[in-house]
Amino acid sequence: MAEQGPTALYDRAEHAARTLRGRTTLEPRIAIVLGSGLGGFAEEFGDAVAIPYREIPGFVSSTAQGHVGSLIIGKVDNIPVAAMQGRVHFYEGYSLEEVTFPIRTLKLLGIDTLILTNAAGGIDVQLTQGALMVISDHLNLMGVNPLRGANDERFGPRFPDMTEVYSRELQELVTQEARVLGTTVRRGIYAALAGPSYETPAEIHMLRAFGADAVGMSTVPEAIVARQMEMNVIGISCITNMAAGISEQTINHQEVMETGEKVRITFTQLLRRIITKLP
Ligand code: HPA
Question: Does residue 159 form part of some domain?
Fold first, then answer.
């Protein structure tokens, strides 16, 4: 019979965090979630251990192409960092509790700054293929909230404030470090939809009227949970395509993956700089 684990969410996350502590002596305070096509960054880590999600109690495995499904704990310029190489999505059929369980675990592991990255479609006309966007705020249009259900006050309040989900100070840091690298990153609002179909031009028209600059199918549940637990959050979108109807082209996942690969060098340089400059 399978081993009986703890049942309360907090205890399950604690159990997972304990498992991770048993696999490394590093004590990272920074974690990064690598989105579609962006997993390559973790391959540069020094003294790294890669722990497949299936070996971490409570973690579920990604079915999406381009998402590897390992937690890498290693060093970036001597700074310990935990990186999720691949995430699971709501559209895969997982609950948002399952989607955000790794974030709960990372908090209990000692992470206080979380960098969320994703592939997104550009709605603002200046956000063309290959552009990077720092997320300044979001629209949760998934139709669900990851905090729905019983609340455990050990994680945070029932009704957490969401006035500044993405730290303004850290948005500024990202912008500055991009400038040093000679690239510009624009700030913008990220709209999260449930997916998995891409949007229709009419939906993109609506999102534009709502104030969205980019659209995707992830990140927002993780950001909400992270803020409830008072983590500092950074969000960076890699614009892999222009959203439906913004350009003449249709959208396909292959293109999304290839753009991720093309911006890889700039993207990893930027991440490296951010990590070394974090307060
Ligand atoms: N829409 C939603 N999600 C996405 C897109 C898009 O155009 N591109 C990459 N992820």
Answer: yes
Does any domain span residue 1?
no
Per-residue pLDDT of the chain (279 residues; tens, 9 = 90+): 555 667 899 999 999 999 999 999 999 999 999 987 788 899 889 999 999 999 999 999 866 665 568 999 999 999 999 999 989 999 999 999 999 999 999 999 999 999 999 999 999 989 998 999 999 999 999 999 999 999 999 999 999 999 999 999 999 999 999 999 998 899 999 999 999 999 999 999 999 999 999 999 999 999 999 999 999 999 999 999 999 999 888 888 887 777 877 788 899 999 999 999 998
Cα distance between residue 79 and residue 27, in whole Å: 10
Count of CB atoms situated within 10 Å of the CB of 252:
11
Q: What length does the chain have?
A: 279
Q: How far is the CA of 90 from the centre of ligand 1 (A)?
A: 14
13 φ, ψ (degrees, to nearest 5): -65, -35
Q: Which domain holds residue 262?
A: 6-277
- What total of structural domains would you count in the chain? 1
Active site residues: 36, 67, 89, 91-92, 119, 217-218, 241, 253
CATH code, domain with 201: 3.40.50.1580
* 69 within a domain of the structure (yes/no): yes
